[in-house]
Amino acid sequence: MLHLITSSIGFYFVLSAFLIGALGSLILSKNDKYANIWSNFFSILGSSTGLIFAISVMITGKTFSFKFNSLYQHLLSFAFNIDMLSAFFIGIISLIAIFCSFFALGYVKHFYKNYNIGALGFFYNILIGSLILVVTSSNAIWFLVAWEMMSISSYFLVVYDRKDESNVKAGLLYLIMTYVGTAFILFAFLLIYKYTNSFDFSIIKSNINLIPLVTKNFIFIFFIVGFGVKAGIIPFHIWLPLAHPAAPSHVSALMSGVMIKTGIYMFIRIFMDILQPIPVWWGITIIIIGSISSLLGVLYALTEHDIKKLLAYHSIENIGIILLGLGSSMIFNSLGMISLSLLSLMASLFHTLNHAVFKSLLFLSAGSVINEVHTRNMEEYGGIIKYMPQTALFFLIGSMAISALPPFNGFFSEWLTFQSLFQGITQLHSSLSWIFIIAVGSLAFTGGLALTCFVKAFGSIFLAKPRSQEVKSAKESSLSMRIGMGFLALFSILLGLFSGYTTILLEKVGRGLSVFNETFSSISISGNQLFKLNNGFSSIGASSVFIFIILGILFIIFIFKYLVNRDQKIKTGKTWSCGTELTPRMEITSTGFARSIILIFKGILKPSLQSDIEYHDFQSRYLPKSITITFKVNNVYSNYFYKPIQEIFNGLSMKVKKIQSGNINLYISYIFIILIILLYIIL
Amino acid sequence: MSNIFLKILKNKNNLIKINSKDIEKEEIISIGKKIKDNIDYLFNGSLAIRQIDAGSDNACEQELVALTNNFYDIERFGIHFVASPRHADMLLITGPLTRNMVKAVKDAYDATPEPKIVVTVGDDALDGGIFKGSYAILDKISDLIPVDYHIPGNPPSPKTILLHILKIFEVNKLK
Amino acid sequence: MNIIILILQFIFVPIISPFFIGLIKKIKAKLQNRQGASVFQIYKDLWKLLHKDEIISNDASWIFKIAPFIVFGVTFVVGANIPLFSSNLPIYLSGDILLIIYLLSVGTFFLALSGIDTGSSFGGFGSSREMTVSAIAEGGLLFSLLTISIIYGTTNLFDISSGNIFASNHFILSIILAFIGFFIVLLAETGRFPYDNPDTHLELTMIHESMILEYSGKRLALMEWASANKYVIFTSLGANIFLPYGISYNTGILSIILGILFLILKISFFSFIIGVIESRIAKFRFFRLPDLLLVSFILSIIAIGLIN
Fold first, then answer.
1. How much is the ipTM here?
2. Nearest to residue A167, comparing CAs of A250, A239, A262, A261?
């Protein structure tokens, strides 16, 4: 049985499930209910088998590759290579897709009658399928085909709610940015082809010495831009906070949790596998990008009051944290400290997994709140914990996990990332160790700011009094939605509790890359989930942390609730408000909560404050009728990065326009001149 | 021994002055000691007071603030003022109860957890004092919330307040 | 013997913490030429609060009800897992600096949420300020502890506190700089001047007090006690990591008693300094606080730079 699963047959089965799901829901699109159930049933089926497939490949270590040759053999072959890294990413994709599909069963209901459910199911299944193709394909052209399938299907999902004008705009921006990225990727692959004469990853890898270093550096930059756009690194992130919120919530969860990770996958695949060996400055670049993305990502998240945009900015932040791990891995790798390099790679893979789990959990619970309250604006929420207690609990778990609070999973991957950076500080020479010091500094600030941001998010969504009438009619979301969220919440606890086993598995994944085949491990993990760095620098025990915290808090509750003053009476009363009538308008808003931090970082965020006062009587300015205060953060990137680029292109186009005078004689002379030049070249 | 005689001899100005302040200080300390004994007995050694201004002319507030200064220093007897009625054991209400403060006083009373003592300070708080009968005030605070004790005076001096608090405790101790 | 030491380690922080808060108050009172409350006044306050009834707001959710237990529980767990009087314990959680920092963040997280929960405008602003200060303090805290970790080659606090003191003499400048950085963060995290005024009744200046304004009775006692615990945790970290003198290296009775005495002496010294600072300077304007915290961050970074 296991033999059958870990072969190409298992892989076909997974892909065909998504294909059947896609086509079937398109056929059934007349009936909303059937289309929804059909598409989600097959996506659950496909992703569960995908998960089993990935786990059995990872555990047995039986990797395999196969390909079908096409007409133009040396250009395009449908080559698949399922090694440990691919299996790991298939595992992540499938894990998240299962629960997103469960969630979709209940969530999609509110689209019935107004939208085409069949199309949603079609693109949703195609997206998951193409994600799996992206992480398994082993031929550049075939990879680009899968990459485009992924981009286009996600584009249609972003503009699915097309009645909202802003969604269509967001989709357009996403499409443009994606194609800019693809252009860079294509260019990089063409450069590689020029020297190695092949698009096949394995052949490129064996002929990598043919590429001169300068070209390799250019290839690196092109890949950074190309895949960085998809991963959402700053400053190529501008599409992400617009496109992710626009999609239906289960798709946002999939995009934010998984799709942007394909960029990370390709970073690892290309820099740690194919383009080996690599110069040191590549790793330094990645670490700097990671520091900037994580710090700025969380700062921008603090300025948001749109819940899904806030979560999208946190994706940028977490991509930054993943890149910190990856970058230190690359630096260690090029310095020949292979076992530390493996440690850092494990940290970044672990964070990739954890981020996928808690970010999709957060998106799903945000989705179920939006589904009830019908707005994404956090200022109109408040007090939802009383109407949707379970969703609130799931969001709380997600918030604690993403803020890296122990004992949840985020803490352990961030701990590993910190450790790999600490090793960089202690083991490297002064100039390089400063890079790591900067990285630790940005990671520390990121952690503190992320905590602040999620206090803000949880506080203004779920706590205090309802700020709008819609909240009061909110009901707990349906069972299938709660299953989707509940299992992801459970996973973020389990991945924390069993972080030792997970790390062992990740080490196996890392060793799947040929650089790490024969590496000494720099971390040892014992049966009770105790991590210990082999040079004795740090150690931490996951299960003891868990038990200590739980027992400590239960002990306190026991003593102070049941031993000390048992017959205490508890009354409920009004909130004390100095005798004024407390209204929801007096509560702190999410903008107000973050205001002091925004003002502290005003050098980076460039906030602007506008106030308009309208008076009852124009002559005497004593009685204001209404005061409007607009507090917003300027978009630095479009002002200082994209606008200048646009202006340059506009200017060039204007210059080119001059040769088009509309005079037919002139055009004929152009043709004549070109003809002569061509003849001259050919003859 | 001889030193002391020497000093007395050398010092020409051998009149020792005792002013009224010193006497008062001794009085306060002796009252305070008794208060402290009572607080230890009745409140486990800690009494938290929330002061509510129900529309006072600030005379009583001045006297209450004086309780925390260097001279009276009621902290040493285990009494402290707190920021919220939720933290309080004793409410000290000053001033005539103005209509605007009715809701606030009621809220503060409701917000104070049991066991609690409500004490009005000053003649205004008892029956409106010189503002009695004004349209702007409700004459009696005890009509709004149950008042346990009253400290008379307009305004009462800090020593009077302390002495009354002591009496309140002694009455309670006997019960 | 081991069991006794272990129990002592667990209850030491909660038992001793109210004393030091009382001590600071006493020192401040003396500097103001007052007699002030007894050093044991805080114990009496807590005991009274534990035996009072409670009033909980209608708008509060279960977060508000459970937060005091979590906030106190976290300080209890952290207090049991940092070096106090002995660096040689039979069993402990891990003593890893990152774990300690992030566990304390759990407490801050729930404290801030409980401030927002009742919908009171004080609580919300208190939470906002607390999170702002603690977010910016995190860099300085991590780096000051990291400096010492790098000098001793371990992030385990117990190993650091039992490390060779004389080996660190080469890095005395780094240690001093890191200590200044740590002390600035200590003032911020424990809500002392110039960050927060622990005695204030004025809503405008409150950070910690305004978040617990809605609590009463038992839960208020837990919150107050937890903040006292946090003070002892930070001062004993300062005492044992930066001045590791007098800590007991073995489990002999005499050395344990000496260790306890030394720790109390060192924390009293810290309290004296804090008391003097609180009497000498005024609270800073809120937007000047980040500058001070950044100073702590930069000092610690320089300290690390000096090691390499």
1. 0.95
2. A239
